[in-house]
Write a structure and sequence with these properties.
Length: 690
């Protein structure tokens, strides 16, 4: 018999027996195993070979039981238990794709009982169908054999129970009879599910887009009807002919968490047709052609052959900096430093001890002037000095009004923390001019060096976008840095932020808090800003809104609080590439004197972009609180697509030219809702570069 041969084969491979067969037995097994699966093996004697052997044997025993429990959970359609086992064990530990003695896998049972939720959970965990079912006939024959043998076993046990007198053996046979009756019903349900099922319908929403100059991407959804059988894989086919003759390639997708596929290695400028079909246990369903029906690999830069804006810029800047250093290396001010050993990198654990050195020059109070403070944090803790103070050093005690240009210069210096010594020496050369600006900036460099020396750390982090001021004439420049390591440093004091806030004794009144008190009160907001500034956008094409406002000494840009390093934006689509055809259409729209929303031809990439832009513009106008009717005077920036690393790109939406930048005193009738802030343009540029 076919089933008997499969059983012999599985037993010869020393695989597992079927385990408990009745629902009650399975439920008891679940309860008993729930605690046992989490055995602490450290109680074994690791030095003993016998102990290690027993440990391994016990581990395999529990993994064996977990495999049996998974089969039982699938058979009982216990979704919660299936999910628990998949979360607790790896597919290898569960033997997820090893058939049982009936030649079945957990996924086979799930799809033939048409339990879609369990089948999807198994598929996402990497489950496969049994390789024994090479054809519809083999699956049908196997199921018929299982049903027939289960029915025969039920008849035999029924006769034995009826003919034998009541005794212990009879009670055991009654249990076996109930178990086989339940299994007989399961196999009949699986057989009926297989016979009732049909091939799935075609996938829906098959969309084709240009991913680059050598690739296209196809996305799709599940069929509207799977016809009583879960879809277990999809097939993507492509060709340069609309009849798919000859086909150029195909790919089978069996990881169904994300239904998309990128076809790579294509020829730029060639049209490719794509279709997708779905598969279930009854076979492949009909293919569904994509919309649009074809795509031509290309990139918007091919429109005019433009090179990337930033190509070679970083290398050019490094070269320029090297030239400047070469010019200054023979200066007199450098000679005393020639014999100095190269500054060694202090380990954080050693260098942070300086925080608690009695001779440290950190300040406890402010006495009217310009100061630098460095905030190092880890989780909800902050690094403090041995006197439980945030590290503060003095920049200039005669400086009571920080000029914006000096502050912006300081933020640029923060990109060169490792070059402070060299910068100090260069500024010293020029100090003979007695420029007040140069003297202030030289004092800033001295304060940075002092902070670095006391902390033993070169990188002081990111400068907060505005200094903290008080009415007493104190100004605090704040740097922020998150410590990622979990290492416990000797003698270092990490204090919970909330404890520092409550324990500090304020020396000012609530009406006129000092800059230090203001810093402590708002420290969570500043840490949140710092963390959000490092967040990255997910890959895709975005629509950004450029809005500036000017003051006497600076220009500021509108940004969202949640992502202050990015313009106000909404996502257009997940594909960041703009094809040549799409860019040509955008150029045509931008050149029209009266922009009329002329909808492109249906079933083209341009039409799809047109629809996506309509949705994105409405969403963006709502986000920044601008009436939609005002958007008719807005325009898309048509000079280029802003590209960030190849995975994120932006189209810019600009207000009318007179409204791009709001002048001082100019009334802005449309104020954005809460959740936005304005950053100095130079600060935003530094954050965007980072």
């Amino acid at each position: 018999k076919m089933t008997q041969q499969m059983r012999d084969l599985q037993l010869a491979q020393a695989r597992k027996p079927p385990g408990p067969s009745s629902p009650n037995a399975a439920k008891r097994l679940y309860r008993n195993l729930s605690g046992k699966f989490r055995v602490n093996y450290t109680s074994f004697d690791e030095g003993s070979l016998a102990g290690r052997g027993e440990k391994e044997k016990l581990r395999k025993s529990y993994l064996f039981q977990s495999n049996a429990a998974l089969f039982e959970a699938v058979e009982l359609q216990d979704l919660d238990r299936v999910q628990e086992l998949l979360k607790q064990y790896s597919p290898e530990e569960l033997d997820l794709n090893t058939p049982n003695s009936e030649g079945l896998l957990p996924l086979d049972i799930a799809i033939m009982t048409n339990n879609a939720p369990i089948a999807r959970a198994l598929l996402q965990a990497g489950a496969k169908e049994s390789p024994h079912f090479v054809s519809l006939e083999s699956r049908s024959l196997h199921l018929s054999t299982l049903v027939r043998e289960a029915e025969q076993r039920v008849n035999e046990l029924t006769a034995q129970v009826v003919n034998e007198a009541p005794n212990a053996d009879c009670s055991e046979k009654e249990k076996q009879l109930k178990a086989w009756e339940w299994r007989y019903r399961l196999y009949k349900r699986m057989k009926a599910g297989f016979e009732h099922a049909r091939v799935p319908d075609a996938p829906t929403n098959v969309h084709l887009s240009v991913a680059s100059s050598s690739s296209v991407q196809v996305t799709f959804w599940e069929p509207l009807s799977v016809n009583s059988a879960v879809v277990t894989k999809y097939k993507v086919e492509w060709s340069s002919s609309p009849t798919f003759s000859p086909p150029l390639g195909e790919a089978v997708i069996d990881k169904l968490k994300n239904l998309h596929f990128t076809i790579r290695g294509l020829v730029s400028g060639t049209a490719y047709y794509v279709q997708v079909s779905a598969y279930n246990m009854k076979g492949w369903g009909p293919p569904q052609a994509s919309v649009p029906p074809f795509a031509i690999p290309s990139n918007w830069r091919e429109y005019d052959g433009r090179a990337p804006r930033r190509r070679g810029q970083a290398e050019a800047l490094d070269h320029l900096l090297g030239q400047v250093k070469t010019v200054h290396q023979h200066c007199v001010c450098h000679e005393p430093c020639k014999n100095q050993p190269q500054s060694r990198k202090h380990s954080v654990s050693k260098s942070l001890k300086h925080l608690f050195h009695p001779g440290s020059k950190f300040l406890k109070t402010l006495k009217r002037g310009l100061y630098l403070t460095a905030i190092f944090y880890k989780d909800d803790n902050i690094l403090v000095t041995h006197e439980d103070q945030i590290p503060v050093v003095e920049i200039d005690d005669t400086y009571s009004c920080l000029l914006m240009q000096d502050f912006l210069w300081f933020t640029k210096v923060s990109c060169m923390w490792d070059e402070i010594l060299w910068l100090r020496q260069c500024v010293t050369v020029s100090q003979s001019s007695c420029s007040c600006i140069l003297q202030t900036r030289f004092k800033m460099l001295l304060a940075i060096s002092q902070m670095q020396g006391l902390l033993g750390i070169q990188d002081l982090g990111q400068v907060f976008f505005e200094p903290v001021k008080d009415k007493q004439g104190n100004i605090l420049i704040v740097t922020l840095k998150e410590v990622k390591t979990n290492q416990t440093f000797e003698s270092v004091r990490w204090v919970p932020i909330c404890k520092l806030q409550t324990s500090r004794k304020s020396v000012s009144s609530p009406e006129e808090p000092t800059a230090l008190d203001t810093l402590l009160i708002s420290i969570q907001d500043k840490l949140a800003y710092h963390q959000r500034s490092s967040h990255a956008l997910s890959p895709g094409l975005y629509l950004g809104y450029l809005k500036l406002c000017s003051a006497v000494d600076q220009i500021r840009v509108l940004v969202p609080e949640q992502l202050p390093n990015i313009l106000c934006h909404v996502k257009i689509r997940s594909n960041p590439n703009i094809s040549r055809e799409e860019w040509e259409w955008l150029q045509k729209m931008a050149s029209m004197e009266e922009p009329v929303p002329a909808e492109p031809e249906a079933e083209t990439t341009q039409n799809h972009l047109f629809q996506e832009l309509q949705v994105a513009i409405k969403e963006l106008m709502t986000l920044v609180n601008i009436p939609l009717q005002e958007a008719k005077d807005f325009r898309l920036y048509s000079q280029e697509v802003l590209d960030f690393g190849g995975q994120v790109s932006f189209l810019l939406l600009l207000p009318p030219s007179d409204d791009v930048c709001t002048a001082p005193g100019q009334n802005n009738p449309y104020t954005p809702r809460s959740g936005f802030l304005t950053l100095p343009l130079q600060i935003f540029e530094l954050g965007e570069e980072g």
